[in-house]
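Predict the holo structure. Ligand: adenosine-5'-diphosphate.
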Amino acid sequence: MRKIILLGYMGCGKSTIAEKLSSLLQIPFVDLDRVIEIEANMTISQIFESFGEVYFRKLEHDVFVELLASSDKQIIGLGGGTPCYANNHELLKGEGITSIYLKASVATLFNRLAHNKSKRPIVANKSDEELQEFIAKHLFDRSYYYNQAEYKVIVDGKTIDETVADIISILT
Ligand SMILES: Nc1ncnc2c1ncn2[C@@H]1O[C@H](COP(=O)(O)OP(=O)(O)O)[C@@H](O)[C@H]1O
Ligand SMILES: O=C(O)C1=C[C@@H](OP(=O)(O)O)[C@@H](O)[C@H](O)C1
Ligand SMILES: [Mg+2]
């Protein structure tokens, strides 16, 4: 396989898990958001603030297509919204691509995002009460796209190492 792609809602652990998986499997890791930030020379928050979400989604699609076009073996951590726009979910079905949905419950996501939302413009300004309800509805809306992944790994109640071990058992 050429690309191992991790997807799922904000805070499910895509960036954290991909980095650990990368060091264990000795396969380079790229975080889609980081590539976007480097190419734009701006943070994700600055892109949203200056140009808006529609512009970000276009950039995200272009960078995703660029990454998939390379023949390099890579682990790619997507942004939470990547599979949900611009038909990106169809790109997950391409040849040589293994896609894995890191599935987290609303409670797990809320616990993580409540302390970790400032760099995520979609949730940055929400109160705790708003956040819980927002995640529940948003996750429901996005689940259709996340469920297009080839594999699903439940992350609730698991340590980083346990989730990584689950992924390795899928890959081997
Ligand atoms: N068991 C766990 N697995 C993954 N992340 C965890 C876990 N426990 C706590 N975290 C924390 O949750 C956050 C997940 O964020 P991140 O990896 O950026 O997710 P994503 O890229 O999916 O938005 C990190 O701050 C990470 O340290
Ligand atoms: O869910 C989303 O729409 C987004 C998730 C973020 O990535 P993470 O899932 O890594 O936080 C980032 O791409 C951007 O803030 C938008
Ligand atoms: Mg991330």
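The first strand starts at residue 3 and ends at 7. The chain has eight helices and five strands.
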